[in-house]
């Protein structure tokens, strides 16, 4: 079963993460295998901010083949407790900005592992302060729509 694709214009041009993966620029790697690489973010939220990245260039979540996506998740899951201890952090945010409107700046898919500690000043503010609470009918309607599209991706 394939996930439905949403319309999107692929970005063009140069990719800094492809450069790093090909050894064209300095990078501090903490894990690598044939499919995935993890390195330290050059502008970390906190020390130990790691990016888990596929070696191949995929832009956003829906471009990632299922096996690669599962592998990246597995690598992230292995790294999370280690990074947390190494960074001396108490907690972690796992963040994926998938697409420009979602805040993705480097258009080579990556998972942020962000070590967190009390009072560090970073915030992924949820629930969104500007949120308008939907009623139960609206929530049920959306849940039914998602469930139906999962069962039959061609229907929407
Ligand atoms: P995004 O906004 O795309 O989710 O996150 C991109 C991340 O890549 C940012 O946190 C940024 O600091 C990091 N980044 C951008 N350029 C480089 C680079 O050249 N090297 C490394 N290690 N990280 C980078
Ligand atoms: Zn790339």
Commentary on this structure:
The protein is an alpha+beta fold and 156 residues long. It has a domain at 16-123: HIT family, subunit A (2-Layer Sandwich). Helices cover 28% and strands 16% of the residues. It is built from three helices and five strands, in the order H-E-E-E-H-E-E-H. The chain has helices spanning 16-21, 66-86, 136-151, and strands at 29-32, 36-40, 50-54, 91-95, 111-116. It has a five-stranded antiparallel β-sheet with strand order 1-2-3-5-4, with helices on one face. The chain binds guanosine-5'-monophosphate (5GP) and zinc ion (ZN). Zinc ion binds at residues 15, 17-18, 57, 108.
The strand count comes to 5
- Mean pLDDT, to the nearest integer, reads 93
Number of helices, where a helix is a run of at least 4 consecutive DSSP H or I residues: 3
Poorly predicted spans: none
CATH superfamily of the domain at 16-123: HIT-like
Termini distance?
15 Å
Strand and helix order: HEEEHEEH
Percent of residues in beta strands:
15-25%
Précis, in short:
By secondary structure, the protein is of the alpha+beta class.
Give a topology summary.
Elements: H1 16-21, E1 29-32, E2 36-40, E3 50-54, H2 66-86, E4 91-95, E5 111-116, H3 136-151
Bound molecules: guanosine-5'-monophosphate and zinc ion.
Residues 15, 17-18, 57, 108 line the site of zinc ion.
């Amino acid at each position: 079963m394939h996930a439905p694709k949403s319309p999107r214009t692929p970005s063009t041009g140069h990719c800094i993460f492809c450069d790093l993966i090909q050894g064209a620029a300095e990078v501090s790697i903490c894990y690598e295998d044939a499919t995935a690489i993890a390195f330290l973010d050059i502008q970390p939220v906190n020390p130990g901010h790691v990016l888990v990245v596929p070696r191949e260039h995929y832009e956003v979540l829906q471009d990632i083949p299922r096996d690669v996506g599962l592998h990246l998740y597995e690598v992230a899951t292995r790294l999370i407790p280690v990074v947390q201890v190494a960074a001396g952090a108490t907690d972690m945010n796992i963040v994926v900005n998938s697409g420009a409107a979602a805040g993705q700046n480097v258009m080579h898919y990556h998972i942020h592992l962000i070590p967190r500690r009390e009072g560090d000043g970073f915030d992924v503010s949820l629930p969104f302060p500007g949120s308008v609470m939907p009623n139960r009918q609206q929530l049920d309607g959306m849940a039914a729509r998602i469930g139906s599209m999962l069962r039959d991706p061609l229907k929407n």
